[in-house]
Design brief:
13 strands, Cell_wall_metabolism_enzyme, 3-stranded antiparallel β-sheet, mainly beta, globular, 9% helix
Length: 250
């Protein structure tokens, strides 16, 4: 027995298929900037150079600003960004660039001079940029004043010798901050990486803080994760719980 489809039912079925089919994804218009999201553990892309902290806002920034080296040409990096694990500990919160004394220092990006003077006896210039970033330059002799508006590459100071630990006649210490967080200035050029400090990592992941003295143990044969207390002082280290289930040495 043959089954015939009524013409009106065929039309209705075609309409349903057309409505249910999802539209193809829209292609971005030519010239529209795109922002690449970076996940934990992903290699640093050339555009932002970050592990998880994206230098550019994901919304509200239609145009990505342009940054450049603060010295002529491509200077040699004598010391890289090495922030401390905790804010009050010693570290290197910027990069050092080799240059000759008296070299002209340029602003890395467009912005407004926020500070020009001495910081703990070191002559410094600080520039605020529209994307919420702040770059610093020291030790330098300022040639600008607070409130001056600068385009990317405008001169702002002259380099002077005396930077601690510099292996050359003079070094420019170039710093980058967002609020109170120090970042790698080379990330502005797609050359560096932004290290996440432990407290910052916990804040971004949103994981609750673990009570003092409580540690996580690896999953045992049953697959459950148990929370235990730290071993008493003087206890001999034993094998992991997974390797020796139900038994611990103390």
């Amino acid at each position: 027995m043959r089954t015939y489809l009524h013409p009106l039912r065929g039309v209705a079925l075609a309409v349903l298929i057309t409505v249910a089919a999802p539209p193809p994804p829209a292609r971005p218009a030519a010239g529209t900037p795109t922002v690449r999201r970076v996940g934990f553990g992903a290699p640093a892309p050339r555009s932002v150079g970050a592990e998880a902290v994206v230098l550019w806002p994901l919304a509200g920034a239609p145009v990505r600003p342009t940054f450049r080296w603060p010295l002529a040409g491509v200077p040699r990096v004598t010391r890289r960004f090495d922030p401390p694990p905790l804010p009050w500990q010693p570290g290197h919160r910027g990069v050092d660039l080799a240059a000759a004394p008296g070299a002209v220092v340029h602003t890395a990006g467009a912005g407004v001079v926020l500070f020009a003077g001495d910081v703990a006896g070191t002559p410094t210039v600080s520039v605020s940029h529209p994307v919420g970033l702040r770059t610093t330059y020291q030790p330098v002799r300022p040639t600008v004043r607070v409130g001056d508006r600068l385009a990317a590459g405008d001169p702002l100071a002259v380099l002077v010798p005396g930077h601690p630990g510099c292996p050359e006649p003079a070094c420019l210490h170039w710093g980058l901050r967002r609020d109170e967080r120090y970042l790698d200035p080379l990330a502005l050029l797609g050359l560096g990486r932004v290290r996440l400090l432990p407290a910052l990592t916990r804040g971004l992941l949103g994981s609750p803080r673990r009570p003092a003295g409580v540690v996580r143990r690896r999953a045992g044969p049953g697959g459950s994760r148990r929370a235990g207390r730290t071993p008493r002082p003087g206890c001999r280290p034993g094998r992991s719980v997974a390797a020796n289930p139900g038994r611990s040495r103390g």
